[in-house]
User: Which sequence fits this backbone?
């Protein structure tokens, strides 16, 4: 499958840029941690509340940080006409989409690990039901990265891209936020079997957002 | 020479194939939503479910929906005690909070709270209402007729 | 039973107000755009 | 529509809206259960229906724009006009629902499936309108807005069916329920029907006016652009002075 090879090429390019510029490591990850700490400040007086709210706060922090990741992913294409280069490279639009989404997903996975440790240490959460947590995280990460990439290219090339992306992405990912939070709640403190419908919902979101991206990214890239 | 190095033009058929696959996948997801997802989004638990899962729920807060059993309402200064029923199950509710306009026998209600033993301790009481509108008769006529 | 006329009045009032504001804004802009269109030609 | 036809249509719409108001507030009886708060139904249902209709028109116009054979700027502008009116009606519907929920349910807002998906719908189309405004040229605007509109429309059926799929606080449809069992009769039904009709006509008036405004402004921008280009060319290549 040449499309997967092309996708790997684009993903490797994006990740190489991130490794050299260290924006993801030195700005996006710390941002996520700061959000986590801010939530703790806001709810500090009631110690018992933090572990119960941890799933929602974890995903809210991740969502806010993922906006930065999406913006960053398209900011690197903005400079020096890199987007024109991508457009003229002859790569399949779907492959470019998959590549960029995979790179964002990899950054989000790293962020989830850091935030996960943060939640355990700062919010006093005991991890349980690793399988549910893992599947939830995988499906939610794919859905977030794919949706972010779609709206990233929708807003690409506009002067107000940085402020427009959150306005477009955040409403579109509410099902992901909801599903992931409820699944985590069930896994960590509730009835674990109640998590499965939410994991399925997340799976559907992931599949749908990837389909939309595969179909729409090419035409949108041509136009931007 | 240069011609061979240019990337190949994407055939139109490939896009058609992609659209077909996407349509099939979307249809499958929609069909699956209609069948499987129905239990996923839970705003409230029916009384029967809440009663049968009482031990699993522990003291966690959730919303329970049912109908007020006629003749069981005992109002107090800061709330009310009453029974709700649904699907053949009944539960005792201890509600503390403000009064509601439409709260009475046979009213369809949603209570938010948790189990305390066999009693459901509620801090919020919401009234659902049906989709029927009528100037002369109440929507809960069935409940009244069956219990009186 | 409390008939809650206050909520009804608020609902009808805000709806009428919002529609009037939007309609008025549209009417004004349209008239100005039409004027400048005929001026330009 | 000609100028006269537009005026007649607008006049009839206003008269019907006035009749609707009289029927809804005075003639129609109060509900036995809910009292007069039920009169909010006569605004809540039409605004909800128009939100669906407006976003459907937006999606249809976007699809027609995307299809090469029917591509025309009018479709793009119609999509924008309809979405703007749709956002107005969605906002009104949320406001009316909140005012209705307070006395009847006992809460201004509840995170059940219907209310949550509707709020998401509102924000999706707010984002769409923002996207339209920020695109500099109509070429830049067309494709990305059309695709964004089609993605956003996926939420409309979810909003509509949410009350049938899931347990919600919100009741199921009075008319468009799975069994198509109409649960409203007599004067109430007539009032609701007239209300839906007059509001739909109002939607047509507003959307067509908004479309005309958009076309006029688009045309003016085009003219100004051409004028500016002509001036620039004239400045850079001055006419050779006529030497006598």
Assistant:
């Amino acid at each position: 499958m040449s499309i997967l090879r092309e996708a790997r090429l684009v993903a490797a390019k994006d990740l190489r840029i991130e490794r050299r510029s260290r924006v993801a490591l030195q700005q996006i990850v710390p941002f996520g941690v700061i959000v986590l700490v801010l939530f703790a400040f806001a709810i500090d007086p009631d110690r018992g509340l933090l572990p119960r709210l941890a799933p929602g706060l974890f995903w809210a922090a991740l969502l806010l940080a993922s906006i930065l990741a999406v913006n960053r992913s398209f900011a690197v294409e903005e400079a020096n006409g890199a987007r024109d280069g991508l457009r003229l490279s002859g790569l399949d639009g779907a492959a470019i989409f998959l590549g960029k989404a995979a790179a964002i997903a990899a950054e989000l996975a790293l962020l989830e690990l850091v935030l996960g440790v943060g939640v355990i240490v700062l919010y006093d959460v005991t991890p349980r039901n690793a399988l549910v947590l893992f599947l939830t995280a995988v499906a939610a990460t794919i859905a977030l990265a794919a949706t972010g990439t779609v709206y990233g290219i929708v807003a690409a090339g506009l002067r107000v891209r940085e402020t427009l992306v959150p306005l477009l992405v955040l409403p579109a990912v509410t099902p992901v936020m909801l599903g992931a939070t409820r699944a985590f709640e069930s896994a960590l403190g509730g009835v674990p079997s109640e998590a499965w419908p939410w994991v399925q919902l997340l799976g559907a979101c992931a599949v749908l957002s990837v389909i939309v991206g595969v179909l729409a990214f090419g035409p949108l890239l041509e136009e931007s | 020479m240069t011609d061979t190095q240019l990337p190949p033009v994407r055939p139109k058929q490939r896009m058609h194939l992609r659209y077909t696959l996407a349509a099939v996948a979307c249809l499958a997801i929609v069909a699956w939503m209609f069948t499987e997802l129905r239990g996923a989004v839970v705003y409230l638990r029916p009384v029967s479910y809440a009663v049968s899962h009482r031990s699993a729920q522990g003291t966690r807060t959730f919303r329970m929906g049912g109908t007020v059993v006629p003749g069981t309402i005992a109002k107090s200064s800061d709330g009310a005690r009453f029974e709700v029923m649904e699907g053949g199950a009944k539960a005792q509710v201890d509600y503390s909070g403000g009064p509601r306009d439409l709260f009475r026998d046979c009213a369809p209600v949603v209570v938010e709270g948790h189990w305390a033993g066999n009693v459901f301790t509620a801090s919020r009481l919401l009234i659902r209402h049906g989709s029927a509108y009528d100037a002369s008769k109440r929507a809960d006529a069935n409940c009244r007729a069956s219990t009186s | 039973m409390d008939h809650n006329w206050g909520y009804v009045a608020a609902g009808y009032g805000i709806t009428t107000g919002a529609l009037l504001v939007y309609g008025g804004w549209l009417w004004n802009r349209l008239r100005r755009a039409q004027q400048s269109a005929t001026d330009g030609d | 529509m000609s100028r006269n036809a537009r005026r007649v249509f607008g006049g009839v719409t206003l008269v019907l809206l006035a009749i609707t108001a009289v029927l809804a507030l005075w003639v129609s009886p109060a509900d036995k259960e809910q009292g007069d708060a039920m009169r909010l139904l006569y605004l809540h249902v039409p605004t909800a229906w128009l939100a669906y209709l407006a976003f459907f028109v937006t999606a249809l116009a976007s699809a027609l724009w995307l299809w090469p054979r029917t591509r025309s700027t009018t479709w793009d502008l119609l999509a924008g006009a309809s979405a703007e009116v749709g956002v107005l009606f969605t906002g009104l519907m949320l406001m009316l629902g909140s005012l209705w929920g307070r006395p009847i349910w006992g809460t201004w807002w509840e995170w059940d499936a219907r209310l949550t998906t509707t709020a998401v719908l509102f924000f999706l189309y707010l984002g769409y309108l923002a996207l339209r405004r920020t695109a500099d040229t109509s070429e830049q605007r067309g494709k990305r807005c059309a695709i964004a509109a089609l993605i956003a429309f996926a939420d409309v059926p979810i909003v509509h069916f949410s009350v049938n799929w899931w347990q919600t606080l919100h009741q199921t449809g009075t008319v468009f329920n799975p069994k198509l069992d109409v649960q409203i009769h007599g004067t109430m039904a007539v009032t609701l029907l007239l209300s839906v009709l007059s509001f739909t006509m109002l939607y047509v008036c507003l959307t067509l006016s908004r479309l005309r405004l958009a076309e006029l402004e688009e045309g003016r921008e085009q003219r100004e652009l051409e004028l500016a280009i002509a001036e620039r060319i004239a400045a850079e290549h001055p006419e050779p002075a006529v030497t006598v």
About this structure: The longest helix of chain D spans residues 186-236. Chain D has a mean pLDDT of 88.
